[in-house]
């Protein structure tokens, strides 16, 4: 039996186990930094698969690092696993499938790694959707988890089509706070300092700023605290924002403009203003490596699938981008539905526990594991992918 046949056979044997894991995680959605059940379920399964597993890593209590090293030398390949849910709507992004797929792919590759050489890792990276300790891949990068990794792989549940890795944009989540002075809004308004006035100035300034922004820039926000009662001058207001752009450099240029807007609004109203990040890590833009995606495409097509050749372009964001800044990584979209389903929707949540979604686990695991096998068996291919990635990183600077 060839190595390819061993991988495919193992995925088929274990498919029901990982489907059950995906359904269990779907039934118990957990938001960023609280994925205790998902973390335990996936990490315990990897222990049963023979991996050495450490939990609570890179400053994330629901993160994990699972490894298996062959005695035979070879590259280090990391599969990325996500398993957080969205607040209120649950697994409407498909991370219940995402984590199960990556873990099954790594376990399948482990079946042949002693013979082909190298090391298999699975990084359980919490909070892709954000939160106060979210976007964990940025922490894994900062803490050096990718310093000795040659390439990283994952596949994201999509909609009704297969697509290659998209150029997703950078994202900086932050909040703006103003503190003023409360007073009776009718009998003594002159005694108050209106924190809501300052916040309205910020929103108006952002509206004016948009005319001078590049077309890839997005600024969106909500007022999460606007005051307590109409007859009280608001002494505290808070708004939460995302600023996005095609590159980290452009995103930070806009971010600094918003800092000046905040300072100006505070000065004009007499308030005290504060602008600060709302999560541990900003999200970098994804830098695709087309030669890496080409290997995945070849393997998925060898399994009888076809790709949608529309230009891969997204104005969403993913912390896979933080990884793509330092090593080659793929995050293609895999079909989970026969009809289009919008991301972060009830329809997508339901697709992620339906047969069409569960089918993507085995399919994605095979394609990822076979892609990894190609990189191990063809060192020249892996080296070219690393060269292409380095050039792509330089090209964006």
Mean pLDDT: 96
User: What helical percentage do the residues reach?
Assistant: 40-55%
- Spans of at least 5 consecutive residues with low confidence: none
Strand order in the sheet with the most strands: 1-2-4-3-5-11
Strand content: 15-25%
Strand segment count: 12
User: Helix count, per DSSP?
Assistant: 11
Indicate the structural class.
alpha/beta
Keywords:
single chain, about 400 residues, 4-stranded antiparallel beta sheet, 11 helices, 12 strands, elongated
Q: What are the SSEs and their pairings?
A:
Layout: H1 3-27, H2 36-48, E1 52-57, E2 60-69, E3 76-81, H3 95-116, E4 119-124, H4 136-142, E5 151-153, E6 156-157, E7 170-179, H5 195-209, E8 218-225, E9 236-245, H6 248-269, E10 272-277, H7 290-302, H8 320-324, E11 329-330, E12 333-334, H9 346-351, H10 355-377, H11 379-395
């Amino acid at each position: 039996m060839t190595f390819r046949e061993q991988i495919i056979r193992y995925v088929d044997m274990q498919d029901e186990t990982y489907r059950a894991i995906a359904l269990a995680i779907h039934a118990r959605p957990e938001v960023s930094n609280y994925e205790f059940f998902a973390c335990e379920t996936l990490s315990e399964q990897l222990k049963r698969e023979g991996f050495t597993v450490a939990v609570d890593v890179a400053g994330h209590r629901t993160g994990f690092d699972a490894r298996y090293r062959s005695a035979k030398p070879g590259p280090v390949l990391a599969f990325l696993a996500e398993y957080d849910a969205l607040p209120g709507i649950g697994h409407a992004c498909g991370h219940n499938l995402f984590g199960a797929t990556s873990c099954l792919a790594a376990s399948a590759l482990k079946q042949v790694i002693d013979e082909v050489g190298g090391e298999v890792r699975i990084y359980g990276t919490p909070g892709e959707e954000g939160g106060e300790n979210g976007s964990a891949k940025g922490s894994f990068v900062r803490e050096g988890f990718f310093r000795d990794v040659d390439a990283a792989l994952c596949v994201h549940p999509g909609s009704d089509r297969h697509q290659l890795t998209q150029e997703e944009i950078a994202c900086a989540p932050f909040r703006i706070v103003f503190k003023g002075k409360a007073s009776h809004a009718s009998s003594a308004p002159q005694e108050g300092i209106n924190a809501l006035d300052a916040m309205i100035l910020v929103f108006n300034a952002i509206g004016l700023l948009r005319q001078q922004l590049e077309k890839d820039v997005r600024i969106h926000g909500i007022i999460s605290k606007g005051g307590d009662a109409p007859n009280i001058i608001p002494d505290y207001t808070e708004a939460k924002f995302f600023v996005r752009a095609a590159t980290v450099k452009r995103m930070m240029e806009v971010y600094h403009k918003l800092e000046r807007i905040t300072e100006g609004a505070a000065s004009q109203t007499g308030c005290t203003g504060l602008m600060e990040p709302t999560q541990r890590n900003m999200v970098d833009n994804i830098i695709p490596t087309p030669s890496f995606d080409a290997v995945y495409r070849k393997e998925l097509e060898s399994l009888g699938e076809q790709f949608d050749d529309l230009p891969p372009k997204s104005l969403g964001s993913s912390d896979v981008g933080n990884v793509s800044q330092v090593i080659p990584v793929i995050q293609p979209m895999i079909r989970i539905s026969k009809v289009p389903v919008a991301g972060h929707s009830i329809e997508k949540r339901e697709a992620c526990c339906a047969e069409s979604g569960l089918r993507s686990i085995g399919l994605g695991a095979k394609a990822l594991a076979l892609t990894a096998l190609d990189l191990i068996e063809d060192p020249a291919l892996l080296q070219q992918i690393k060269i292409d990635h380095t050039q792509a990183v330089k090209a964006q600077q």
